Amino acid sequence: MLKTILHSNPPSKFILIEDSLKEGGTDVLNYLIHLHTEQHTEVHHFIFSGNFEKQKHSNPRVKTYDFTSDFQGWFSQQNPNINDIVEGISTKTVVVIDSLAHMIFQYGVSQCYKLIRYLKERPNIIQVATILHTDLVESVDILPFFEHLSTFCMIREPQFNKTKKRVSCIYKKPSGKITRLKDEYYFNEGQLFSATIKTVNPDVLVQQSINQMLSDTLTTFRLSLDDKERESRDKVVLPFLPKEVTPDKEESGGKITYKFDEVDDWDEEDPDDDLNI
User: Fold this and answer.
1) Is the separation of the CB atoms in 244 and 237 below 8 Å?
2) Where is the composition biased (Basic and acidic residues) (predicted)?
3) In the β-sheet with 152-156, what is the strand arrangement from edge to edge?
């Protein structure tokens, strides 16, 4: 499901990846950049964290902007004006922001929210994708605002497997339907592989455990018979039923046998029920 959504056409308008410095989601962001450049789409990559020189792309379809080298003005340089860049985008473009947390440090929550909403509403912006390191944000109260703004939100979960990573996803379809799912994914030679994790309703598990416990504790014998036991029961000859007697084993003397009437039902729980007592 994760791969299907990332490859959807038209693309999901605003992808928000929530991760931590330990459980990073940069691999998905880089995969999106590669995916769009393979489709001959122009990508504007805003770099707000890390070393800018190491993150520059050699692909001519990717334009990188340095917001890390001198955002405090210590080296008498001036960072690019992000509003001028956004206003100057006129072609079909994908905008990638490598760290929303660092962007918030520079511009504040309100301005970042307005900027992303503006990018999301512009028809020539095919997609906006960003990562929010939740452990760098002072207040978790801002998360619902950006989650509400997103059309696809990925939340990284603790990794228990060396290769496969897990995410909880919230996908909002253009029709307004919201789908929640859990996926695990991994990359192999640049290709993305993902599978949906099936979840079980905990109420169903609890009820099944209760039923099993009651079955084990409240009964000391089985109430049903298997085929072999049923066959053995049918072979038992009751003493009041007539027996087949062969000539060489003919018995002498008086004996009492019981002959069933048409209305008799000898297999009932109460054998005297037909006596109307």
Assistant:
1) no
2) 246-261
3) 62-66, 42-47, 93-97, 125-133, 14-19, 152-156, 165-172, 178-188, 191-196
Confidence of residue 265 (pLDDT cuts 50, 70, 90): low
Least confident of 21-25, 144-148, 177-181: 21-25
Would you say 15 and 150 are in contact if contact means Cβ atoms under 8 Å apart?
A: yes
> Is the confidence at residue 27, as pLDDT, over 80?
yes
Distant-in-sequence, close-in-space partners of 63: CB < 8 Å, separation ≥ 6: 42, 43, 44, 45
The two tokens of residue 50 are 């890390």
User: In this structure, are residues 172 and 154 in contact, taking their beta carbons and an 8 Å threshold?
Assistant: no
Residue 252 pLDDT greater than 60, yes or no: no
The gap from C-alpha 8 to its chain's centroid, in whole angstroms, comes to: 18
Q: Which pair of structure tokens corresponds to residue 170? A: 């919230």
C-alpha R_g of the chain: 37
CB neighbours of residue 239 within 10 Å: 7
At residue 197, the pLDDT reads 78
Min mean pLDDT across 10-14, 137-141, 165-169, 253-257 is at: 253-257
Helix axes 109-121, 100-107, angle to 10 degrees: 120
Q: The tokens of 211 are what?
A: 């039923």
Cβ–Cβ < 8 Å for 245, 237? no
